[in-house]
Amino acid sequence: MTRKKVIIFCGLLPPPVHGFSEINNRVLQLLRKQGETVLTYRSRGSDDRMGQVKSILLDLVRIAGDMVRFSPSSMYIGLSGGSGKLVDCLFIMMARIFGIEVFIHHHSFRYVNEFERSAWLAFKIARNATHVTLCAEMGEILAMRYGIKASKFLTIPNAAFLDPLPSLVPKRSRDYDVAPLNIGFLSNITAEKGIFLFLDVLERFKENASVHAIVAGPVEKQIEEEFSRRVKEMPNVRYVGAVYGEEKRKFFSDIDILLFPSRYRNEAEPVTILEALAHGVPVIGTLRGCIATIVKENYGMVAKETEFTAVASAFIESSITNESPLPIMSTAAMESFQDLAGIGRLRLGQLIKNLAN
């Protein structure tokens, strides 16, 4: 009888639900689906600092004991974007002491955009670890900044983790005087995620009955008042709250174009953009992280933050006049996503296989 492999899994899991925790969870489920024994650590966050310290210390004691008891074959670690990397360093050090192969999954551009000593320390300790990146550009910058060998990178786009959708048809062109063009925004609603930049674009079409907007997502408390005031001043903007599951699918079905005007410095590869492309929704995004690698000019645009309002407005205008035919862009978006997801799933399968070997 073949003995099951034991895998150490280190990473935050939902709740809360966000891109980082959700992708970690998908990897964990895939490993369990393979029938492997997976030991999880740092599986939940805590708002209480003492609670965090206690949880970390308990995990360190557990992981040391489990490494002696189970002799794991590998460690998967969803690397933290912030100060949590110092804790990740301790887990990686444990793996090195016990001679366990390490796989580091990168989700943030925080230490990619700028050199960070904690990231340098983690990679120095990890040495010959496999580094999983979201796009080739992410790997190239990490290699240049931290001296990681090019052969140690495996690129797996987040598209690999999204569930296949039922057969969808591309968006159709129509008379926008009768049925308006719907522009969408889906994210945590914060200034950093670009909600006010989005509203600046829609402000230009406030008197145009051919353009409407649907905004979805939970609103950050700090901007609730300003957000509510601006939406009330714009009759062409409708706020529908947070959407999940079937409501999210309906959101993508109802919109024609997604604006993703993120100002978040450490934006990586937003799952929302990938979901939009999967539904055949063209995207206009800001030049952040891996966005330029997944949004191409035949079904969208990427612009600098300072140019976003002008670029997005021009794109919307051309869509209304059918200079940029929606069905053609929609088909291209769906095909691009399918290609990206197909390549990603092959590489994801290789990662799971390597973790289990």
Element order: H for helix, E for strand = EHEHEHEHHEHEEHEHEHEHEHEHH
Structural class: alpha/beta
Name of the top-level CATH class of the largest domain: Alpha Beta
> Alpha-carbon distance between the termini?
16 Å
Rg for CA atoms: 22 Å
CATH architecture annotation of the largest domain: 3-Layer(aba) Sandwich
Major beta sheet summary: 6 strands, parallel
- Number of helical segments? 13
Fraction of residues in H or I helices: 40-55%
Would you write up a description of this structure?
The protein is of the alpha/beta class and 357 residues long. It is elongated, with a radius of gyration of 22 Å. It is 45% helix and 15% strand. Helix 2 (49-70) packs parallel to helix 3 (85-97). The longest helix is centred in the C-terminal third of the chain and has 31 residues, at 326-356. It is built from 13 helices and 12 strands. It folds into 2 domains: 6-155, 3-Layer(aba) Sandwich (Rossmann fold); 181-337, Rossmann fold (3-Layer(aba) Sandwich).
Briefly say what this structure is.
The protein is of the alpha/beta class and 357 residues long.
Set out the fold topology.
Elements: E1 6-10, H1 19-33, E2 37-41, H2 49-70, E3 74-78, H3 85-97, E4 101-105, H4 110-113, H5 117-126, E5 130-133, H6 136-146, E6 153-155, E7 181-186, H7 195-203, E8 211-216, H8 224-232, E9 237-239, H9 245-254, E10 257-260, H10 271-278, E11 283-286, H11 291-294, E12 300-303, H12 308-320, H13 326-356
Parallel strand pairs: 1-2, 1-3, 3-4, 4-5, 5-6, 7-8, 7-10, 8-9, 10-11, 11-12
Helix pairs in contact: 2-3, 3-5, 7-12, 10-13
